[in-house]
Amino acid sequence: MLPRRPHRLTLLAAATGVLAVLAGGGAARAEPTPAQVEQQIDEAWNQLEPIIEQYNQVHTLLKDNQAKTAVLQRQLQPLQDQVDAAMGAVSELSVRAFKRGRITALDVVLGAESPDALLGQLAVANAMARNQRAAIEEVLVARDRLAGDKRALDAVIAQQAEQDAELAAKKQDIEAKIGDLQKLRQQVYGNDGGTGALRPVACPVDYLGGPGGTAAKKACSLIGKPYVWGAAGPNGYDCSGLTLTAWAAAGVTLRHYTRWQWDQTKPVSKAELRPGDLVFFYSDLHHMGLYVGGGWMVHAPTTGDYVRMAKLDGRPITGYRRPG
């Protein structure tokens, strides 16, 4: 073990710099425990979660407003086409009437051959002007109103886009720090952190803090408890009894039935999975587990077995859900 000591100390020394950043300075610990690292992750998560929620809100509003402005643009184009068509019709009428294209009052005066002709042509010109205004006035009003709405919305979009970018940068920065802490956590756990067949690797594999992290840690603490049909502890668990107990530790109440827990929670994609999320199997949702990171879950498999870790790969997954 002695020859490997400098390598491990180098890793720990590098990672504790992250701890100092998140903790706001202070003395670095040469040998942090998993609990100490998880406390740092909790602190970072408490910074990250409000930013995630702000980002989600602003990003959703931004997308909604971008969709609205696209609708306004689609509504504006036909109105502009109507204005162009009306102007074209007036011009065509002018050509037919005077054989010299669209006219002005000066054209009428200069082109009149007699006073009577002048009066007649002016009357026609005035009638055409009135018809022109009547033909396009309503369209112009509607066009200008929509254009004004779009300009106001474009200003809001510009402001939201700036907020969106700022929050995304903050989110990325804290996520990177949590990622460094995750690496340190794996180091202080040792090679795998496993304790046998039921817990072959560190559990949770990833720890992100917040309610999901609390639920994941609780599920991990129940590894080794026997499967007992219809039970939710403390001496045994079935699959939904395990997940409701895990989330109860985070202050979230779930009902004791897989289908009810599916209905009580919101869907997430595989790419969005994080520790604490629920994983459901089979078309009738008759089995479920709790995700603990790294492609692993904790579940209560079947009669005669025990609460244990298992890989998600190769299993008939129906969907992923998140309580809260």
Structure overview:
With 324 residues, this protein is an alpha+beta fold. 60% of the residues lie in helices and 9% in strands. A hairpin with a 2-residue loop joins β3 and β4. The two termini are 45 Å apart. 26% of the residues are buried. The N terminus is likely disordered.
Q: How would you characterize the largest beta sheet?
A: 6 strands, antiparallel
Summed up, the helix count is: 7
Distance between the termini: 45 Å
Count of individual beta strands: 6
Q: Briefly, what CATH class of the largest domain?
A: Mainly Alpha
Question: What percentage of the residues does DSSP assign to strands (E)?
Answer: 5-15%
In CATH terms, what is the architecture of the largest domain? Answer: Orthogonal Bundle
Question: Which short descriptors sum up this protein?
Answer:
alpha+beta; Helix Hairpins; 6-stranded antiparallel sheet; disordered N terminus; 324 residues; endopeptidase fold (from Nostoc punctiforme); 9% strand; 7 helices
